[in-house]
Design brief:
- It contains 5 helices and 4 strands; from the N terminus they run H-E-E-H-H-E-E-H-H.
- By secondary structure, it is α+β, with helices and mostly antiparallel strands.
- It has one domain: Arginyl tRNA synthetase N-terminal domain (Gyrase A, domain 2).
- The radius of gyration is 20 Å and the shape is elongated.
- It has a 4-stranded antiparallel β-sheet with strand order 1-2-4-3, covered by helices on one side.
């Protein structure tokens, strides 16, 4: 696990997307996007596979949602032509806490400021306050 829980979740979702593509037998990769707030973390549209599979996007999404997932993800959910990815709150919290523990002292620290064009702007902004 890295120090960025969001990137870890995205990477896991991409692996699930690959499993979906393998399960469906499609050759064209799907596009994983951030889902609308009330739909989970990520969404995968099935529109791009309709011609290849000669099926409706909604029926493809239903098939795709049967692919098993691992925590912190919940079972996938078909919502019309989309497959939504959501997480179990407890498993998600543990994922974030584990990331924080692995980073120990550096958790929450910003990367060092580089010198150059922006450093003088930051210094001027601080003085002007």
């Amino acid at each position: 696990m890295g120090h960025d829980p969001w990137a870890d979740l995205r990477e896991q979702a991409e692996r699930i997307r690959h499993s979906i593509e393998s399960s469906l037998g499609v050759t064209r990769p799907g596009i994983l996007q951030e889902a609308p707030e009330d739909r989970g973390l990520f969404a995968l549209a099935a529109h791009g596979w309709a011609a290849e599979l000669k099926a409706s996007p909604a029926s493809i999404a239903t098939r795709a949602a049967r692919v098993p997932v691992v925590p912190p993800y919940r079972a996938l959910k078909a919502d019309g032509p989309y497959v939504n990815f959501s997480v179990e709150p407890g498993a998600f919290a543990e994922h974030v806490l584990a990331s924080a523990r692995s980073a120990s002292e550096s958790y929450g620290a910003s990367p060092p400021v580089r010198s150059g064009c922006c450093s003088s702007t930051r210094a001027r902004t601080r003085r002007d306050r």
